[in-house]
Amino acid sequence: MARILLIGGHGKVALLLEPLLVAAGHDVTAVIRNLDHADDVATTGAAPLVADIERLDADGFTDLVGDHDVVIWSAGAGGGSPARTYAIDRDAAIRSMDAAASAGVRRYLMVSYFGAAADHGVDPDNPFFAYAEAKAAADAHLRGSTLDWTILAPSALTLDAPTGRIDVDATSSGEVSRADVAAVIAASADEPATIRTTIRFNSGEVPIADAVRGAERADGAEETS
Fold it and tell me: Which of 28, 51, 93, 224 could disulfide-pair with 46, CB 3.0 to 4.6 Å?
């Protein structure tokens, strides 16, 4: 059993992930910003914890992640102003990584997106540009850290029923259900083979456990699938 801190605990994927982690025997604390969301989280079996990650400083993040074995970042600004996107998806995420390293929490999983990269190709005039820039910076910082990191990069998210199968060899983004993304995160948290890997995936035909177990070690390089 691991003590898992899930940051972004009321997201659509997170609410599907929490019961999977709990069922696997983990002790899950889910960080939320709004106290009104606490009951939704509690029904999954996770323990809600209210904190404003946008405003937490380095010491605040160190206190937050301390006493945990694993940090999972599934938070995001959810669009809106570029300033808030950078503040949460880049700056707060990076502070959480540095805090994990300072607190001795080695295992860190980042939920990113399929196209995240320094050369993401999003036009600066596109409203998605700030998010693309923020995620590229956060992912790069994590790859350069000493943490036992995993970056999970799903394609476009759907509300379809879970299939339990994914494709980690696709070269272009397709679609994948949020339920399958949750299952990939849960499987990766328990799979040492995913350490220091970037796993980009669509819906596919390979059982999730087999797909993540076969991930190639990146050793801090740009990525593998």
Answer: 28
Can you give the CATH number for the domain in which 86 is found? 3.40.50.720
Q: How many CB atoms lie within 10 A of CB 153?
A: 22
Q: What is the pLDDT of residues 87-98, one digit of tens each?
A: 999 999 999 999
CA distance 102 to 99: 5
> What's the CA gap between 116 and 153, in Å, rounded?
8
Contact 142, 149 (CB under 8 A): yes
Angle, CA of 32, 36 and 42, to the nearest 5°: 65
d(CA 169, CA 183) in angstroms, rounded, equals: 18
Task: Say whether pLDDT at 215 is over 80.
Answer: no
Among the residues of 56-168, which ranges form H helices? Answer: 58-65, 82-85, 93-103, 129-143
For the chain, the domain total comes to 1
Verdict on whether the full-model pTM lies above 0.85: yes
In a domain, 128, yes or no: yes
User: Domain for residue 93, yes or no?
Assistant: yes
Report if residue 90 sits inside a domain. yes
In a domain, 165, yes or no: yes
The token duo for 91 is 């700056």
* Closest C-alpha to 116, from 55, 73, 80: 73
Q: Which residues contact 34 (CB under 8 A, 6 or more apart)?
A: 10, 50
Strands, E assignment, 8-69: 27-32, 47-50
